Amino acid sequence: MERIQPASGALADAYIAGCRVGELRLQRCGSCGIYQFYPRIICGNCLSDELEWSAASGRGEIRSFTVVRRPISKAYEAPYVVALIKLEEGPTLMSHIVDCVPEAVAVGLPVQVKFAAWSENVTLPVFTLDSQRGSSS
Questions:
Q1: What values do phi and psi take at 61, rounded to 5?
Q2: What value does the CA radius of gyration of the chain take, rounded to a whole number of Å?
Q3: How far apart are CA 84 and CA 43, in angstroms?
Q4: Which string of DSSP letters, residue by residue, matches 42-81?
Q5: Which of 22, 45, 47, 127 could join 34 via S-S bond, C-beta 3.0 to 4.6 A?
Q6: Helix/strand/coil for 34
């Protein structure tokens, strides 16, 4: 059974291409300097269309999470942690926390991006707990 695949399109493809080479890319507005995620054709802050892709630090903090104990299909091995990650650059994205027991996850913990094969052709960002940095909450 195959995992749900991200939609294809000009904006999504630029993001996915970054992930494929191990780079978390965010759009940054050339007018106001704000980073945004999810990808859009205009800046969500100032409505400028001067957007460019920029490599993000990959560092963030867990803002919220849930432990999934009953997967939606056999393609997803439970338990797994789905979390909202507030990136250092500002945007929040949803991802998985990996390489730890679910009980180790807590709001406010620092995380670092890594990349995991989602399918034969798609690599996506996941996050690990970052023991090198302390909690900022």
A1: -140, 140
A2: 15
A3: 21
A4: S-TTT----EEEEE---EEEEEEEEEESS-SSTTSPSSEE
A5: 45
A6: coil
DSSP state of 113: E
Name all domains of the chain by residue range, CATH numbers in brackets.
Answer: 7-56 (no CATH), 57-137 (2.40.50)
Between CA 18 and CA 125 the distance in angstroms is 10
Would you say 3 and 118 are in contact if contact means Cβ atoms under 8 Å apart? yes
pLDDT band at 101 (very low <50, low <70, confident <90, very high): very high
Backbone angles phi, psi at 26, to 5 degrees: -125, 155
pTM of the predicted model, to two decimals? 0.90
DSSP assignment letter at 15: H
Per-residue model confidence as pLDDT tens digits over 43-66: 999 999 999 999 999 999 999 999
Collect all residues with Cβ–Cβ distance below 8 Å to 29 and sequence separation of at least 6: 35, 36, 43, 45, 46, 48, 50, 51
